[in-house]
Amino acid sequence: MANLTEEYVRGLIAGIRDPHADTDLVSLGWVRGIGIDGSRVSVDLRSGYPLDGVRETLVAAISAKLESDELIENAAVNLDWKVVPHVVQGELKPLEQIKNIIAVASGKGGVGKSATSVNLALALQADGARVGVLDADIYGPSMPRMLGISGPPRTDGKRIVPQRAHGLQVMSIGFMVEEDTPMIWRGPMVTSALQQLLSETNWEGLDYLIVDLPPGTGDIQLTLAQNVPVSGCLIVTTPQDIALLDARKAVQMFRKVEMSVLGIVENMSTHICSQCGHEEPIFGSGGGQRMSEQYGVPLLGQLPLALKIREDLDAGTPTVVSEPDSELTARYRDVARNLSARLSLTPRSLAVNLPQINIRST
What we know:
Blueprint: H1 6-13, E1 17-18, E2 23-24, E3 31-37, E4 40-47, H2 55-67, E5 74-81, E6 98-105, H3 113-126, E7 131-135, H4 143-146, E8 155-156, E9 159-160, E10 163-165, E11 168-172, H5 187-199, E12 206-212, H6 219-227, E13 232-237, H7 241-256, E14 261-266, E15 271-272, E16 279-280, H8 287-295, E17 299-302, E18 305-306, H9 307-314, H10 319-322, H11 327-344
Parallel strand pairs: 4-5, 6-12, 6-13, 7-11, 7-12, 13-14, 14-17, 15-18
Antiparallel strand pairs: 1-2, 3-4, 8-9, 10-11, 15-16
Helix pairs in contact: 3-11, 5-6, 7-8
């Protein structure tokens, strides 16, 4: 009979896969320590993404797996998590108060990108992360309405204090103008506004900043690629071919500028009838999966078209906060974990942000 050793226990842990990263726990680097006392084992694990909502389920599954081995009578599992900055494109470095910026993009409008962005941000927060949202759609800002915020933000010295909504830190050009005021700006003005919204906002210790991009592959996207340290991108599409065609362009654009594409979300994958609950793929099916296979980018989840999602956003209380225990919220939270888990697989950033030192003569 084999002896109970640290290497033996590590081998058992290597047989356990994280359902969100789809990789075994040893390869993920979760194992921080293993203790053995006779037939009792203690394991200390740390995830690279927030998982407060599933911690107990994962601990129970890991303990059960270890205790199913004949050599282990009792397994005590401690599981925590820590989000670290991950590598960004080019020579850029992560910002001091923002560990990771995740850009949410789509090739075309009308695919529910903003609705997906805000609900995923709230889902990440529900799992324990500190999250902010930057509304980068200068021409058509939607975050003030979706999050139920109005009025201009206040300033703290020379910096803008982000608005707060449902625990999120939020910034949008929509806070500075009336809702029905058009932004009749040329490209340079738009890109300058984006950079100001990002750099002049006093973000406070964020694990993730979700940047809701406008549709397409234009000025905003190029400015983002050249000047903003982005840890990864999420592509939102719908199942029909015309949306997938434009989503493919977004994937190719981000790859050309050396930005990591973390995955694809197929929104409006099915329609859920508000009367009977029947679910059917009215826009077609399998499009997101085919795109995933074609470009080697994981399909992180499929979200439905449901009346409740629209009603909640119009009321300024997105579904993840208005119905935290609903099936719709469970889908958003699963996608958010898949997204943050995929990011945790990318290399960590080793860049160090040192404070600026000013020397003055007196």
